[in-house]
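Hi all, a correction to my earlier message: I attached the wrong file for non-specific serine/threonine protein kinase. Here's the right sequence:
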Amino acid sequence: MEFADGGDLFDKIEADVGVQGDIAHFYFHQLLAGTEFIHSKGVAHRDIKPENILLDSNGNLKIADFGFASLYKHKGKVKTSTQLVGSPPYVAPEVSQGVGYVGDQVDIWSCGVVLFVLLTGNTPWDEPTDRSAEFYEYKSTGGKATYEPWNLISDDVLSLIRGMMTVNPSKRYTADDIKKHPWYTAPNPLMTSNGTCRDGLALATRLVEGLHVDFTQNDPRTLVASTPEDPDVMDYDDNQGGSGDTTHHRVSSASTEVIPSTQALSDDMGSLSLDWADENPELNCSQQPSQYLRSKAPAPPQQPAQDFVSAGYSYNDDQILASISEDPVQSQFAAQPAVSMTLTQAARRFNDICPAGRMTRFYTIWPYSRFLPLLLSALRKAGVPVDGRSYDSKVSELRMQGQTAYVKVKTRDGRKCVLAGSVGIERVTSGGGEGLFVVNWDKAKGDPVEWRRLFKRVSVLCQEAVFRGRGLG
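and the right structure:
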């Protein structure tokens, strides 16, 4: 099995912003090429979505998770399927109708939604049914929706997206139609003649510098009260294995209703508690920036180093602090995101700047006893139910033994799809005292763009504890 050591593509896509047009063009080319190859074998993926799009060490796209794949063509004979699979924002409308669909046609639709997300950092609707006011407008206007972010997409690519997302599958673009479209055929300096990445370092740098957590603005969506859930539920089958969700999807019945950014699940979300685990780098090897930092840690200094101070807390290991400043995740917290010159000079390939570990993490020197209440409060304000009562008795033990705390996160995102994972607070430095911590946001289920949106929202609410660099944290 190939290791996608460039990580998750959509972990590097800014929520509500997307990527620049040439980057979207490059990755769409690779997505279509991969989808065409799958179809050439008579197989339909049936679950093309951001969660299932990964990158290799050179920044090239890989389609993952074939748990819902099926054989739709054999010896020239095409068969239809009625199985309800996929993730609501990305599936074609005929999938939910139960009248049968053709695998390659629904994959083309999903590729169109992925292109939309690349360009806008958002999905076009909750689900492709008339219960969604956004989809209803799109369908009733013949694909000429005017609501944001449709009105922000340039005309040259808009016609391609509409062609791929034609509601009538018999009139929908095929792969051949896509490859004739002027936007698709335009030259792209990011791409070699065989469709691979020409300059992985330049691409990685642009992706990282496109991420930004703006501490100067408050996100109004954190202040929106939860809305009642619609009794209509759209279920998608997950009985074939794979990592796809069984998604219970509730949609707003009125176009004027304000939808919260996140919302508790109605079934099993009475309260959430914290998990505590001994520090073990093997538990989550792709999310261990602390291991990199520990490798740079010197022996205890003979002379005390200059203290770094934040909100009354200090930390005096200059070499560790210098290493943090080289971590690419730090770019997103700067007023003007930029990868450090030291890192770009040392990098040799894409994943030296865009590693497999997620970009949804930050550092803090706040002690457990001060940071955990702030984190729990921020999660609640962002619509994630948590119960902080279980952490009090553990704080002193954690402080002395160097354990890692995991806060479980399970909620519904702005599209009412399941969003689940954990926030791990891990000590970077060894020894006693409080020291330095890395706060990892590890997604288990859900859309990576929605996960990043939640990460940004909570980071802003925790900004006084986020280490942003010397003199800034």
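Sorry for the mix-up. The domain at 7-198 is CATH 1.10.510.10 (Transferase(Phosphotransferase); domain 1).
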